[in-house]
Amino acid sequence: MERRPLHIVFLTHYFPPEGNAPATRVLALARRWVAQGCRVTVVTGVPNVPDGKVYDGYRNKLWQIEEVAGIKVVRVWTFVAANRGTARRVANYLSFMAAAAVAGCLVKKSDVVLATSPQFFCGWAGAFVGRLRHLPFILEIRDIWPEAIVAVGAIRRGRLVAFLEWLERRLYASADYIVTVGEGYRQKLREHGVPSAKIAVAMNGIDREGCHAPVAGMGIRRQYGLEGKFVCSYVGTVGLACGLEVVLRAAALLKTRADQDVVFLIVGDGATLGQLKEAARRRGLENVIFTGLQPKTLITEFLAASDACLVHLKKQELFRSVMPSKIFEALAMSRPIILGVEGVAADFLRASASGLCIEPENENDLLLAIERLRRDLALAQSLGRNGRDYVLKHFDWDTLADSYLQQIHSVLKTVKS
Questions:
Q1: Is the pTM of this model over 0.85?
Q2: What are the residue ranges of CATH 3.40.50.2000 in the chain?
Q3: C-alpha dihedral over 330, 331, 333, 334, to 10 degrees?
Q4: Each residue of 111-159: pLDDT tens digit?
Q5: Could you tell me which residues are beta bridge partners of residue 164?
Q6: What Å distances lie between residue 52 and 60, 61, 90, 176, CA to CA?
Q7: Which of 102, 182, 94, 177 lies closest to 144, judged by CA?
Q8: CATH fold group of domain 209-394
Q9: In CATH, which of 3.30.40.10, 3.40.50.2000, 3.40.30.10, 3.30.390.10 is domain 7-205+396-416?
């Protein structure tokens, strides 16, 4: 008899056409697993990030099915909420947990359930499906909750955080295997008592095919009046963890120096975008341009229009373990990085010789890095080339997805034995 293909049920809060890092990662992995002969069913919600508005062509229905790149996508009803505030977002998380758990239990002939953070209620949906269906459960960790939300000030330590930490430990214990996106998180999980043998790393990567498409970025420069400027871009979610107030402080210093040749471009949306825009307006910072949310298809154009890409997080101990996915996209486009993240991300940048490290939240460091790249174009080009070569060699999605699939097969063998 012909053997039935491996059927992976992948629970994720985010999926394209949403263009954030979790959605991009799930699609990159799932479509490659399908190409290798697996069946993949993705259970997700209706696309609505970051504004909490359902995308055109979709409805927030109880149950709807579509196919994307050979992947069966089951979209379930959730309480839709914008990516800001607390109560409505918690309702969004909990409603998805309940709906995804039910949907995961209804997917027929499943072999393994995989659930991905960053919000761990999605992980709990996977734990419920694994327990009720007697399936191996793989938990993917892209953020350490609740530590991450405490670090950005979204919630204060107290009884609620203590309860969430108890849930966190229970979730780790319920997983047959945990896959995380970097060595820093693996170390964090060890500190939380997870055995080393239970943890693997599957980092983010780049699409080799997309890297070869020629992109000039001149259209973006003309559209935003950037001709002749040195453009330092931040491309990604404008969230609490990003600490982008540093950009406003740097822009204000440039204004006092009457330096009009540097422009900051902030591409994306998120919880702090409105505050940043209002602060920039009050201070008359015309050298900071906010584009708002942009289609995923245009991101390479914005990267190509940039002379340097800023990757930045607040100066918090937790963020020393973070490896921001936006690094890979910028390096794939041969753009030098200005990195305001300490720890494993800084180690990565030094190993790849692909950018300049600065102290997080230090506007003077940021301006010094910009000035160095601005005055030494040969250095900027060399850093960009180094980064592209490095990620193409080590972080191609084809190789990463194949290695991840082998880990899944290994888990299945271990659980069955």
A1: yes
A2: 7-205+396-416, 209-394
A3: 130
A4: 999 999 877 899 999 999 999 999 999 999 987 776 766 665 666 777 8
A5: none
A6: 11, 15, 13, 33
A7: 182
A8: Rossmann fold (3.40.50)
A9: 3.40.50.2000
